[in-house]
Amino acid sequence: MYMKDIINEWILQSEEEFKTSLCLLDGGFYKAACYHTQQAVENSIKACLLSIRMGF
What we know:
Blueprint: H1 3-26, H2 30-54
Helix pairs in contact: 1-2
């Protein structure tokens, strides 16, 4: 797998985590929504750091 593909996978995972957090928030599951939001941010940061390191 190429590095660009790995970065895109992190971004897709981040988007999925964020969408999950929105659904949980709408349902009143605040702790779970916070957890998935944190995961979304973490995955986005990983994608950014890999992107910077690879010079994309």
